[in-house]
Write a structure and sequence with these properties.
Elements: E1 4-6, E2 10-15, E3 24-29, E4 35-41, H1 54-69, E5 79-86, E6 92-99, E7 103-105, H2 106-112, H3 117-136, E8 149-152, E9 157-159, H4 164-168, H5 185-188, H6 195-210, H7 219-227, H8 238-249, H9 258-285
Antiparallel strand pairs: 1-2, 2-3, 3-4, 4-6, 5-6, 7-8, 8-9
Helix pairs in contact: 3-6, 3-8, 6-7, 7-8
Length: 286
């Protein structure tokens, strides 16, 4: 790609695979020398309503970016900047600048190979922790999809693009043309973004990630079913979901199911004890 500097500061180096709100680029901050991600935000076409006019959309985007920029949590990709500059076609567009972790999106990971139920649960556990931190600060993601979840090289899951869907609308690139695939039923019906809606979206992401029905009565199946209940009042609480995901993500002991092994050992010991007692009785009697 041709070399280009955005905002007089960010040198675009290579286009990334991630799509959605617009092209994303690996870039270098020419002031700090650090690697960042610059995402070109394509604001939707104005439909005439005051809330959909370019100035209103930019104001809404700026508000969401400022809110996201105040979040500090290890599971949230930090926002660094929002600058207006020319796109490759010459139009003026907003460019969101975030930190660049060594990570790939959940979408990319699933395209390469299926995930085990335990790995999916671990992803869900990390994403839920990030969502809970957001909600504790009064922030709602509003657009969680597999492309908003990044998997790091050391096995952690991060959440990015906080509030962007709330500002500019859902992105069809994540959903195969269906922008509502990961939106809670009440949100698709026109309701507001809420923490309960974020939890429904997490359940939908986990269901998408497993790619098949998890084993019946398993903790992962229970958490997916519990998070995606149609009625927000019937959904799992964050604490309940966290407990189930932790259980589902827990690796099995190398020797197998420790609880089952303990029961077998206790049973064998009890049988052996009864045999010894019987032999003692026989010896005493005869």
């Amino acid at each position: 790609m041709e070399s280009r500097v955005v905002g007089g500061r960010y040198l675009l180096l290579a286009e990334l695979e991630r799509r959605g709100f617009g092209p994303a680029f690996r870039a270098e901050d020419r002031i700090t020398g650090r690697q960042v991600v610059v995402t070109e935000i394509r604001l939707p076409e104005s439909r005439g309503a005051a809330a959909d006019r370019p100035d209103a959309l930019r104001d809404r985007l700026l508000s969401e970016v400022r809110t996201a920029g105040r979040l500090r949590h290890p599971g949230v990709v930090p926002v660094q900047d929002l600058v207006a500059d020319r796109a490759r076609d010459g139009s003026l567009r907003e460019h969101l600048v975030t930190e660049r972790p060594e990570a790939r999106s959940l979408t990319e990971a699933l395209q390469e190979e299926p995930m085990s139920a335990r790995t999916v649960a671990a992803v869900g556990r990390d994403v839920l922790a990030a969502l809970r931190a957001m909600h504790d600060h009064g922030v709602v993601h509003g657009g969680l999809t597999p492309d908003c979840v990044l998997l790091t090289t050391d096995g952690r899951a991060l959440v990015t693009d906080i509030g962007l869907a709330r500002a500019v609308g859902p992105r069809p690139a994540d959903t195969g043309g269906d922008p509502g695939a990961f939106l809670a039923p009440e949100r698709r019906a026109g309701g507001p973004d809420t923490p309960a809606g974020d939890l429904w979206s997490l359940g939908a992401v986990l269901h998408h990630a497993i790619g098949r029905r998890p084993p019946a009565n398993s903790p992962l199946a229970e958490v997916i079913t519990g998070l995606t209940a149609a009625d927000p009042l019937n959904r799992l609480t964050p604490g309940e979901a966290a407990s189930l995901l932790e259980k589902a993500a827990r690796p099995r002991p190398a020797s197998g199911d420790l609880g089952r092994s303990r029961r077998l050992l206790l049973g064998a010991a009890a049988v052996l004890f009864l045999i010894v007692v019987a032999m003692i009785v026989l010896v005493t009697v005869f």
